[in-house]
Amino acid sequence: MGSVSVEGRRSAPAPCKDGYAEDLPVLAQESFALAQGLCRDCDEFHALWPYLRIARKSREVTAGIGVLESRLAQLFAAGAEQVALAGAGDTGLLSTVARAGAGRPRSIVAIDRCATPLELCRRFAERWSLPVDILRQDLRDLDLEDRFDIVLAHSVLSFIAAPSRLDVLRRFNRSLRRGGRLVLKFNTGHPMAEPVAREYHYADTIIATLEGAGV
Hints:
Blueprint: H1 24-38, H2 43-55, H3 65-77, E1 82-86, H4 92-100, E2 107-112, H5 115-128, E3 132-136, E4 148-154, H6 162-175, E5 176-185, H7 194-200, H8 202-212
Parallel strand pairs: 1-2, 1-4, 2-3, 4-5
């Protein structure tokens, strides 16, 4: 962990016609295939995450996304330009930031320790001509100063061991410019108890929902 690779910035964004929409069935296929070769210990998550989004059973990206997009749009309107996605996951957050900042100058850096979501973001940026840099970096090793107007950390702290979270938040703080904002979503609920999960038949419900949607 901790290796860094950065790709060149893409061209200026094209006018938004379709809301920078994601094709979730295609995204799911791409993520599943990429995870087999690019992931290490996170292959199951990245292989299945877009399918969970399609099934609408996981609310990590969908919950409150309208509120998040509205708040980001306010920050862009107030002059924010440099944005970091602290933990990309897939293209969901990139799509949200693109919609929120449509028509305004901005630069986006997608940061993740895994190459799979970064490749998905690279393809999405290329498809929509978005100005996105790709940074492969473990957030526990992030060492940037005065770089961003916005750091967007959406549900990523759940994937970081509790003893390291405060240090990661300090690193986010150092990476912000004067007046910059950390936009943080963190789930404070408890995981579903195993007996309840078994009774709910979560996996069967997901599969049935996908089949019903023709996926």
